[in-house]
Specification:
two-stranded antiparallel sheet, 14 helices, mainly alpha, single chain
């Protein structure tokens, strides 16, 4: 019953921010968020929600996502008991038509966990927060201009997470970049740095599935140069995601400029800052 009702609500509310938060929750490791959301929407007692009502729903869903995604890096038990109990509390608050506000303490230990490898079940949501905190309005604008007949829901449902440095990347000795990867310069890469980089938020991006399928074939040499090659169909330049375009076009405008360690560290720092702002409730740039 709940699934059918949620499905109907999801397709009836075309608000792009609502669709984004719905996807972020739906791709989380739990379905315990569904009842609080349904209860909150029912509390309005309306067949059709106003724009103001939907804004309230967006804020409610944002806070649910904050708690759910915060608890897993903070040693959530395997049975998800803490989240289920908290969602029961959120449901009781929703019955009163009030906004649920999670209690999240961003400690130094929590920040350190954000700096390490992100579990696969959390990667989509974390990447979405980083992506949409850049400028959600521009994302909508690109969507309308590049894919006018495609809804936000259809786009988000067909996205995946890509590692800029893939697991199976290998240096190609015949490529000039091989020397850059294995030099001793601070900005160069080595095996230790590459292993440390994998699965961290600075190395992860949200991207269209068709582009991901194409770029994963490129794993050697200066893969950034090849990934933005205009002769390759569905390459990075065809993406509508700001993080992909920022990396591909602004910082790697020439084929001889590679994905450097210093730029990775820069992206790692600002991505973590966006996540900390999100978990701390500093939401003025997050899907507003």
């Amino acid at each position: 019953m709940n699934n059918n009702k949620l499905k109907n609500i999801r397709f009836s509310i075309e608000n792009p921010v609502f669709q984004a938060w719905f996807c972020i929750l739906d791709k989380s490791p739990t379905k315990a968020w569904e009842q609080p959301v349904l209860t909150f929407i029912d509390s309005f007692g309306k067949a059709k929600l106003s724009d103001e009502d939907i804004d309230q729903c967006n804020f409610f869903m944002c806070n649910l996502a904050r708690y759910i995604y915060a608890k897993h890096p903070a040693d959530e038990p395997d049975d998800g008991l803490t989240i289920k109990q908290e969602m029961l509390r959120a449901t009781e608050i929703a019955k009163q038509g009030k906004i649920y506000k999670p209690k999240i303490k961003v400690t130094k230990q929590f920040e350190q966990r954000l700096s390490s490898g992100i579990p696969k079940k959390l990667q989509w949501g974390f990447c979405a927060v980083v992506e949409f905190s850049r400028n959600f309005d521009k994302f909508i604008e690109r969507t309308i201009n590049l894919k006018p007949e495609t809804t936000i829901l259809q786009i988000l449902e067909t996205t995946t997470v890509e590692q800029i440095f893939p697991d199976n990347w290998e240096p190609d000795p015949s490529d000039p970049w091989h020397e850059v990867v294995h030099n001793n310069e601070p900005d160069g890469w080595n095996d230790r740095k590459i292993r440390k980089t994998l699965k961290t938020i600075g190395n992860l991006i949200l991207i269209e599935q068709d582009i991901h399928q194409n770029t994963t074939k490129i794993c050697k040499g200066n893969f950034f140069g090849e990934r933005k090659n205009p002769e390759i169909h569905n390459n990075y330049r065809d993406s509508i995601f700001g993080e992909v375009l920022f990396i591909s076009l602004e910082c790697h405008a020439h084929y001889d400029i590679s994905w450097s360690y210093s730029f990775y560290m820069y992206r790692q720092r600002y991505s973590i800052k966006r996540l900390i702002d999100f978990f701390s409730g500093i939401n003025k740039y997050i899907l507003r």
